[in-house]
Each structure stands twice: as structure tokens, then as C-alpha cells.
Specification:
By secondary structure, this protein is α/β, with parallel strands linked by helices. The protein has 19 helices and 23 strands. It has 3 domains: 196 residues, Rossmann fold, CATH 3.40.50; 147 residues, AICAR transformylase, duplication domain (Cytidine Deaminase, domain 2), CATH 3.40.140; 126 residues, AICAR transformylase, duplication domain (Cytidine Deaminase, domain 2), CATH 3.40.140. Strands 10-15-14-13-11-12 form a 6-stranded mixed sheet, with helices on both faces. The protein has a 6-stranded mixed sheet with strand order 18-23-22-21-19-20, sandwiched between helices. The longest helix has 31 residues.
């Protein structure tokens, strides 16, 4: 009789238990977050759906103040928080409740044996490591104390057990989960659990990558090219297509930190959706105008400037830049490093432009731009210094990594190699031409006069071809090359470029030097009474 009674009691307990929990027990939602945005509303919604709320530390205090009934983790585990808060949720009662496979009898036996209640929802976002290390006076100790341990453990455990557990790391998903609970009888759908699990693993990956990067810099020094490189990107938006309509594409930013004024931080004020090619050209245009301190306008077409100029006003700079190549400017991108006023918009007139970018716009100028339905109007802070930022070039199966070419050229960096010295006016144009040349696809030749490009030869296999194209562009625009200066992004392999420059009336040349035939070019410049300076630095752009 005793055996039969014991068997009946055991069967009754088994029937009363479902998914590792007795019928009387509510499901548990464990909330432990740094970012409290939307948390109180989420917790109330969970409570309405029949969940017991369990929290730790600051999260529990926040919820209690918000009028939410909450159980402290320490009461669930029967262990106090210890080591100054470093150990709160690292306990078998917590991780057993998260990791238990509800469908395995052995797991259910262990849960019953050790008094572990299943945890069905884990909401956790991590200590603000990136925010901490970005502070001006952050110490190593500050950074280390903001390396979350318990949080990533819970997140990864919940994500691993997505079959039974819903994990949420982003407050924007709170409303999605509440909607799902209501539609599915108090449990999130399989699709939601799977999507959030993947999001959780990506979240912890980025977190660990940030810590690894920071500690690498601290412990290994300023090693530019470590044995292992982590590149973590966060999607900004999907794009309609890539370079061509048959290619799919999306726009990402570096989630490890972006310098102020980078194109990924630009804000669109007006116009239709940006295309892949728009973004590439905007970046090129923005880099050019940010290189110069004077008021500068650049007009970009297919990732090369078809005109660039300095001016007293944005309108004057635009007019001078536009005159360089009025044909190629159709369907271009325009950048200006000053706030755009109505006079510049009136100067642009009816020219078809894909996009314009500037630090800001006068109200009447912006109003006028908004009358152009398809024009993309972009606003972006001027670039801050971004030394140490790396440049990545994709090749089949890997990447090439290098420093960004952000080197400036000063008066002490050049050397006159001819008998004739350049005048101050010529020097000013030479420096401007050199600044433009570094932003043009190689091989590059740039002609400049009075602070404006008059001819640009880009992307040719032979440097003499680039010189001829620059001359042809100048001629088509009705511009006189006589008295202009010439910049070459790399050395002259032969004197033919100098001889052609003389025929065009070029008055001064700036080039890196470094050819075994440098003396031939110097002799040619002396023969034609052209001033020539060497920079000792080239600007290839492939």
C-alpha cells in the first residue's frame, strides 16, 4: 500500500510539473540591464503576461522605484551580492534556470533536485565599455571595471538555449516581445527567439572585440598591424542596389568608433534615397573639401573631381570649380566646406546634381534646395583629425591594410630643384594643385590657376596620357593653360611631361621626384624656364 501511495504522489508531482516548473509557479523573466530605457514599461508588460520579475542590483532598485514588483537575485540564489558587485548572477540557480533543456528528463531531475526554477526570458545589456573608454580621462582601472562578466555569460547562455529561452539585448525589441507574448499565450514565437539569439551573439562579439582592441593598445603598444585584426560593422541601411542594378548592397559603419565628420555620420535633410555610388562619391567630395582651410568647393563625378576651386564665398568657389569641366559636372556630387548660402544655390541654377554636402545651409538656401525633388541634401560636421584610422582594400580572399593618406604638405616639405624659384602666387596654386592631385585616381595630372582647377587628367596607365587629357579638358572648357601650374601625384619617368607642359604654357610644377631620370626632368624645366619643386612624397590612389 505504501509503495502505491508513493507512486501516486510521484505521478501527481510529474503531472504538476510542466517545462521544469510546477503549475503553481509563474514563468521567470530575469532583467539585468545597464540601459534602463523602456525597462519599466517592459517589466509591467511581462507581469501582465504572468511573469515573475527577477532582477539584480541597480536594475532591481530602478524597477522598485517604478512600482514594479521584483524579486532580488540574491533571494533566489540565497547568496548575497559580493566582491563589490562583481558577482551577482554567476550562480547555478541562475544559469541552471537559463540553460536547462525543458525536454530532457535528466535536466528536469536536476532542476527538481536542486530547486531550480526555469528562466524563460533574459533581458540584459552590458556595462558601457565603449562609453567609458571614450571619456577623456579614462584610466585602465576604469576600463577594467566596466568589463562586464555576468552579463555576457547570461546573454550567451540564453542565446544558446533559444529553444526555450527568449534573450533580449536591445530595448527596441521590448515591444516586439510583448506583442509576441500576447499573440502566443505568454511565450515568444520560435522565429522571434531565433532572431534575438543571433542578435545576442553578435552583441557579445562586438563587446568582446572592443575590449580586445582596447587592451591590445594598452598591453602591446601602438602596434599598427597586429597578428589578428577585428573588423566590426553595424548596418546603417539597405541600399536599392550596388554599383550596378544587378548587385545587392547595404551601407555599414565601423562599430568600433567613427571619427567626427566621417561620411557615415552625415544627415540627409532632403531628397530620395542614397545610392551606393552616391555614398562613394560623397565620401570623395567630402574628403577633398576637408583637406583645405580656405572656402573650397569640389565637384565629383565617378569618384574623381571634375572641378575644384577656392573662393572668397561658396558661390565664387563653385563658379570657378564648375568652369573646369561644365560637361562632366552634369549628374555630379557637390561638396563645400562652408555653410551653403542662397547665392551658391543660385549659381548652381538648373544644373542637374545628384547630391550636395556641406556643414550646414542657410534657411533660404535649404528651402530652395528642397524645390529640387530628387536632389539629396546632406549635412555633416567638418572632419576632426583621424590619425591612426586604417584604410582597407578588398582583394580576393582577404584585405590589404594601410594608413590613410592624410599627410599635409608644408612649405618646409618642398625643395626647389630648378634655377627658377616659384613665386608666392605660384606656390599657393602649387599647394592647391597638390591637394587636389592626392584625391584623384592615379596616374594624375592637375592644372591649377588662381586657386581653381583648369584641367584634370585622371586614372591613366601612362602619365603623359594624363597630361594630354588635362590639356584636352582645359581646351574644351575654353580655359587657357598659360600661366597655370601643374601637379603630378608621382614622379615623371621621362622629360616628355615637362616638354608638353612648356608647350601648354605651364609656369611651375610640383611633383614627388625620385625617378632615376629626375635630372632629365630638371634639365627640361631649366631649359623651358619653368620652376619645379619636389615634395619627396607621392600620392598614388588606386
Amino acid at each position: 500500500m505504501k509503495k502505491k501511495k508513493m507512486k501516486r504522489r510521484k505521478n501527481k508531482r510529474t503531472k504538476e510539473r510542466k517545462n521544469g516548473r510546477t503549475k503553481k509557479q509563474k514563468p521567470i523573466a530575469l532583467l539585468s540591464v545597464w540601459n534602463k530605457k523602456g525597462l519599466a514599461v517592459f517589466a509591467r508588460g511581462l507581469a501582465k503576461n504572468g511573469y515573475d520579475i527577477v532582477s539584480s542590483g541597480g536594475t532591481a532598485k530602478f524597477l522598485k522605484k517604478s512600482g514594479v514588483k521584483v524579486t532580488e537575485v540574491s533571494k533566489l540564489t540565497n547568496y548575497p551580492h559580493m566582491l563589490g558587485g562583481r558577482v551577482k548572477t554567476l550562480h547555478p540557480i541562475i544559469h541552471g534556470g537559463i540553460l536547462a533543456n525543458r525536454g530532457l528528463k535528466d535536466h528536469q531531475k536536476d532542476m527538481e533536485k536542486f530547486g531550480i526554477r526555469p528562466i524563460d526570458i533574459v533581458a540584459c545589456n552590458l556595462y558601457p565599455f565603449n562609453e567609458t573608454i571614450s571619456k577623456q580621462h579614462c584610466t585602465l582601472e576604469d576600463a577594467v571595471e566596466n568589463i562586464d562578466i555576468g552579463g555576457p555569460c547570461m546573454v550567451r547562455a540564453a542565446a544558446k538555449n533559444f529553444k526555450d529561452v527568449t534573450v533580449v539585448v536591445d530595448p527596441s525589441d521590448y515591444s516586439v516581445i510583448l506583442k509576441d507574448l500576447k499573440a502566443n499565450g505568454g511565450k515568444a514565437s520560435v522565429e522571434t527567439r531565433q532572431r534575438l539569439a543571433l542578435k545576442a551573439f553578435r552583441h557579445t562579439k562586438l563587446y568582446d572585440a572592443s575590449i580586445s582592441k582596447y587592451l591590445s593598445e594598452k598591453f602591446e603598444g601602438e602596434e599598427k598591424f597586429p597578428s589578428n585584426v577585428q573588423i566590426n560593422l553595424e548596418k546603417i541601411q539597405d541600399l536599392r542596389y550596388g554599383e550596378n542594378p544587378h548587385q545587392m548592397a547595404a551601407f555599414y559603419k565601423d562599430s568600433m568608433g567613427v571619427y567626427d565628420g566621417a561620411i557615415v555620420n552625415a544627415i540627409q535633410l532632403h531628397g530620395k534615397e542614397l545610392s551606393f555610388n552616391n555614398i562613394v562619391d560623397l565620401d570623395s567630395a567630402w574628403n577633398i573639401v576637408n583637406y583645405f582651410a580656405d572656402t573650397t568647393v569640389a565637384i565629383i563625378k565617378h569618384n574623381n573631381p571634375c572641378g575644384a576651386a577656392k573662393g572668397k564665398t561658396p558661390a565664387e568657389a563653385f563658379k570657378k570649380a564648375f568652369e573646369c569641366d561644365t560637361v562632366s559636372a552634369f549628374g555630379s556630387i557637390i561638396a563645400c566646406n562652408r555653410d551653403v548660402d542662397l547665392a551658391m544655390i543660385e549659381a548652381i541654377g538648373t544644373l542637374f546634381v545628384e547630391a550636395i554636402i556641406a556643414p550646414n545651409y542657410h534657411p533660404e538656401a535649404l528651402e530652395a534646395l528642397k524645390n529640387k525633388k530628387n536632389l539629396r541634401v546632406m549635412k555633416c560636421h567638418l572632419m576632426s583629425p583621424h590619425y591612426g584610422v586604417m584604410d582597407y582594400k578588398r582583394i580576393s580572399g582577404g584585405l590589404l591594410i594601410q594608413d590613410q593618406d592624410i599627410a599635409q604638405l608644408g612649405i618646409n616639405d618642398i625643395k626647389t630643384v630648378t634655377k627658377k624659384e616659384p613665386s608666392l602666387v605660384q606656390l599657393e596654386d602649387l599647394f592647391f594643385a597638390w591637394g587636389i592631385a592626392k584625391h584623384v585616381k592615379s596616374n594624375t595630372i592637375v592644372f591649377v590657376k588662381d586657386g581653381a582647377t583648369v584641367g584634370i587628367g585622371a586614372g591613366q596607365m601612362s602619365r603623359i596620357d594624363s597630361t594630354e587629357i588635362a590639356a584636352k579638358k582645359a581646351g574644351k572648357a575654353g580655359k587657357q593653360t598659360k600661366g597655370s601650374v601643374m601637379a603630378s601625384d608621382a614622379f615623371f619617368p621621362f622629360r616628355d611631361n615637362v616638354d608638353l607642359a612648356a608647350k601648354l604654357g605651364i609656369s611651375a610644377i610640383i611633383q614627388p621626384g625620385g625617378s632615376i631620370r629626375d635630372q632629365d626632368s630638371i634639365d627640361a624645366a631649366n631649359a623651358h624656364k619653368i620652376a619645379m619643386v619636389f615634395t619627396g612624397r607621392r600620392h598614388f590612389r588606386h
